[in-house]
Every structure is written in structure tokens, then in C-alpha cells.
Amino acid sequence: MEVDQSTARWIKASASQGSGACVETSSIRADEILVRNSRDRQGPILSFTKAEWVAFVAGVKAGEFDAIV
């Protein structure tokens, strides 16, 4: 996916400790959430619909992924 980096306003995860080991998100279009690795800003960018992202965040908050880490 090509993303115009000049128009994307990337937001680093609030849990970031400054080590660079986190993700950044951006939204260029109303129904699209972009996610990238903060250590590889020129690397791949994942794209999710707003509904997918909301469901993922709700799952994280509910502890659905706690067994993974």
C-alpha cells in the first residue's frame, strides 16, 4: 500500500517507553486506520477498517489477547 507520508500524522502508542519498540497509528481516510512499526517507518503499513480497529481495541481492553503475551 502506498501512503503519502507527507499527509499522514502518525501517533505513537501512549504505552511507549521511548525505546522505539511500539506501533504508530494514523488515519488518512475516514474509515481506514493505518498501523506501522515505529522502528521501521519505511517498512510495511497495515490497513484496517474503523470497525476492525474498534473491535481489536475492545478485545485488547477485555483481555482477549492476554494469553499471547
Describe the structure.
The chain is 17% helix and 25% strand. It has one helix at 50-61; strands spanning 11-12, 23-26, 32-37, 45-49. The longest helix is centred in the C-terminal third of the chain and has 12 residues, at 50-61. It is globular, with a radius of gyration of 13 Å. β2 and β3 form a beta hairpin. It has a four-stranded antiparallel beta sheet with strand order 1-2-3-4. This is DUF397 domain-containing protein.
Beta strand %: 15-25%
Number of strands: 4
Oligomer: single chain
Topology pattern, helix = H, strand = E: EEEEH
Q: What best-fitting shape do the alpha-carbon axes yield?
A: globular
Query: Strand count, sense and closure of the main sheet?
Result: 4 strands, antiparallel
Low-confidence stretches: none
Structural class: alpha+beta
Order of strands, main sheet, comes to: 1-2-3-4
Number of individual domains: 1
Write the layout of secondary structure elements.
Elements: E1 11-12, E2 23-26, E3 32-37, E4 45-49, H1 50-61
Antiparallel strand pairs: 1-2, 2-3, 3-4
Key features of this structure:
four-stranded antiparallel sheet, 69 residues, alpha+beta, 1 helix, DUF397, DUF397 domain-containing protein
In short:
The protein has 69 residues and is an alpha+beta fold. It has one helix spanning 50-61, and strands at residues 11-12, 23-26, 32-37, 45-49.
